[in-house]
Task: structure prediction
Amino acid sequence: MPSENVTADPVQLRYTLMSDDLLDGFVAQTRRISRPWYLRWLSTLLTAAVIAVVFVSSALSGDMAAGPLIGMAVFFVVVVLAAAGFSVLLRRVSNGSWIYRLSVRQIMRGNPGLSQPMQATLTEGGIHVRSATGESTTLWAQYPLHVETDRSFVLLASQRRGGSMLVLPKRGLDAADSAPLRSLLATHSRRLS
Result:
């Protein structure tokens, strides 16, 4: 650990978590998860191949007429490929944020304590979050990764989708400078870019 990354002073954030903050956390978590390109297409191609093999083998065995079976196999392959293309188009156009809006609304509605004022204190020993409904202390080992967005710092428990995360909005910093928080995060977690 370089000495410039170590800070003795605790960093405090005071904020009220909003739906947009949680949405920012979900989108940041999803964008930073690297997946090999072939995993996205593997299930689609395997499904289309299995359907085609089943229909063609049925046609060749004489169970059904070959013409309708081959036509149905082609139809299913085209539908599967069109659905995959539409999915890719929607992801590129919307950057994934629309997927999480409904989930964020449900989470905020189901957990009214999330929309109460909170105070997060980050020290060398860990992260302490306090609100009107309770408080928790977490060691840095719980959040070994972090992502910085324009709006917040998102602490991640893992690179897996759906892993635990903690969203720290930048507007909650006492001072306008977020350098002490950045240096504390650089000391205790790895930044995903």
About this structure: The chain has a mean pLDDT of 79.
